[in-house]
């Protein structure tokens, strides 16, 4: 080795000539061309060593640095069996020292691997995007576990459920199976351990359809056998690769075999180039300097390790300074640059996600330095991007399975077309969902994204994470997408992912239309006054009538006495007999006039008191009458949840364990939560099994049941005959519909992107108008109801009054016939006579009486007078 040369050495048991020596010498051969122009050259001193503890490792390496005077040192962590990041310890004594392993938190070594701090940020960002709340972390060394401490802390702050399992533990597969975790992050110290763990997981059935794996190690190299095994799995797999500019790095280095290199080998290659660039930069700086004749050899030698008695201070080296401030290199692992702590910066990591043959489709990118990325690519990221940039423009791969349920108008089956030909495939279905998926396919194809799908129908309800119904088949991986009126709820988002909402529906109250509520209390107009009040009023009527009759009979100033003295016509003597007193008080109570009024002061006082009494009673009656006359209209006046809470006549409910149930249950405070508590604790049987049952219960309840549900789900059922239900206009909440995919599925971003395009192009509004706002058979009736029957009184509300009218008419007719009969008996005694036989006179054949010699006319007159007198007494 030449004294004028800069030196670079490597330690480590894994650094065999077959694995690394060719890579390092190849890299140096490429770098020598630029260094030779300045009279410099990098040479390689290759050494393999193995130590058991820190003291032996550090003392040996420091002695080697002192004796061999290298310019830089590349250290593998496996040179020390029982050490944790030996490179981080050595850098406290001399610099620059490079590491190609994971490193440790807070280390000052030049770490070619992304720092543990950045890896923690990457894992947290990706898992947050997937909305995982529970996950299992597989690791293999104590160093890896320590490096994940910041990730654990953040997960704890967000109440995530984490479980760590060491894959070196015996029967770790059984521990994973018993934990029943479906989201798994694996992060190992070496690729070999990671790949062996993945293959073992396949054998144990841990990579089936209901699993989602994140492979934390970047740029893992799989041989053909591994690839064949991974292509057969049904789990979603997310993996990472360092983003490299192939047009610069690969063409420059012209290495044909780098595609089969392990990540560690690529890092070694880039280390050689980084060191050569630092030497070149320092050489250019020294040109023109008065000390340039000294040469680079003495200036770039690594400082010897400080002795304890000398006191410790951070070692410095000009190459280290140039590595931290001037280096910008595009290598096999992307952009290579370091900060003042020796941590790698300004790189980005590509994120790949999928299953089987589609697991190599790029989903997005994690950017270590947003500003540098925008400068490098001359592009501007979205404002919300800090590190994670998810790209919706990716290919779904194989045909996507869409699952739904038969519910109008979202999904309906048709067997034949207009020509009566049998339909197959997706053509068998119509409704909002088939049209939506067709539009999504069209819009994605126009964007250059291949998207094919197959519609499948499942029976049952929407389900949750504990059920076997159709929404749960997403969790289990039986279908890729659940499509339908599936409402986005926090409980469902714990186990599945939702796209952005493709639609929303108000949550409204359905009641029986007031015009079709038949009140059994037909005489509700009498309810403003209690039964005891009506009885008391009747007694008061007779008492006051008796008072006026007594006054009329005995007062010298009243009509009776005046008639007897012939001061008035004799007929006035009967003005205030008992019968006429009743009529006088009755007409006064109804504010009607009467021909005469009392003449005496006592009678007038009694009449005035009655008028005051009647006025107060009538005012009280009419003040309360409106509420009782509108008893059938109460449903129309319940506009909010609070209105329902304030009454007890109407029972209200919803679909049990449905979306509305969840909305009310999850409302922590306010009227909605009070409604849920009231239904749950106070109302007997308020729930129904489905929306159709709820609508039918409203129809049959005669106004005693109100159903709370999404309007979109009720429209088809309530817009057909019979038109006897009514939606309260004011909504008590809003439901958002989204497409559900398996947790972490890349389909979420693609479908969300398509929904966003459809919204921008107004396609969603057209679908809403077509399917969610159907032409109703009740439209004309709705107009009549709103103008006449909803708030105005109808014959249904007033039928009790009509009953009184008809009863009154019946009594009037009855007395009419009685009076007519009596009149006929008085004027036609020959045919209808009630005169006793002893008072009758015999008649001859000519119609004259026999025995007294008077004329027939005289006899008839006398008989009539007598009969009239007796009838009057009888009446």
The helix content, as a percent range, equals 40-55%
Distance between the termini: 150 Å
| Rg of Cα set | 50 Å
The major β-sheet equals:
8 strands, mixed
Helix- and strand-based class? alpha/beta
Number of helices: 31
Overall 3D shape: elongated
Strand arrangement, major sheet: 7-6-8-9-10-13-14-15
How large is the share of residues in beta strands? 5-15%
Low confidence ranges: 1-6, 292-298, 831-857, 870-875
Give the tally of β-strands.
27
Overall average residue pLDDT: 79
List keywords for this structure.
disordered N terminus, single chain, 13% strand, 8-stranded mixed beta sheet, 31 helices, alpha/beta, 875 residues, 5-stranded parallel beta sheet, disordered C terminus
